Every structure is written in structure tokens, then in C-alpha cells.
Amino acid sequence: MAPRVINVDKNAACPVAMETLQGDETVAEETRLRQSKYLNNVIEQDHLIAPEAR
């Protein structure tokens, strides 16, 4: 099962890499690339919270 959306930061290399992966059929064509300056950081910060604190 392919991911619907891949969240990344605003790095300029990400769209180029996504096109390459879709061209090689490593990632499905319908998979969207969502670039957000802060979204990736929020997701990564969630991993810092201790499991017993959740």
C-alpha cells in the first residue's frame, strides 16, 4: 500500500527527488508531496515526548 502524502520541509531537493522516485516507479504517481516549513518539525517533536507522558 502506497502512502497518500509524504510530508517534507521546504528543501529545494525534495520535489526533484520525488519526481525521480515517481519516474522510477519507486513511489506511486498518485502520492502527493506536501512541503511545509513547520509541519515536519511538529511531527518530529511528537517523537520527543516520553511514551508514559502521552
Write up what this structure looks like:
It is a single chain. The chain is an alpha+beta fold. The chain has one domain. It is built from 2 helices and 2 strands; from the N terminus they run E-H-E-H. Strands 1-2 form a two-stranded parallel ribbon. The chain is globular. The model has no long low-confidence stretch (mean pLDDT 82).
Task: Itemize the secondary structure elements and their pairings.
Blueprint (H helix, E strand, L loop, with lengths): L4 E4 L4 H11 L8 E4 L3 H8 L8
The fraction of residues assigned to DSSP E strands is: 5-15%
Instruction: Please mark out the parts with pLDDT under 50 across 5 or more consecutive residues, or reply none.
Output: none
The pLDDT mean sits at: 82
Structural class: alpha+beta
Count of distinct structural domains:
1
Radius of gyration, rounded?
14 Å
Q: How many distinct helices?
A: 2
> Helix fraction?
25-40%
- Oligomeric form: single chain
Provide the succession of SSEs: EHEH
C-alpha geometry: globular
State the major sheet.
2 strands, parallel
Whole-Å distance between the termini? 28 Å
Number of strands: 2
Neighbour order of strands in the largest sheet: 1-2
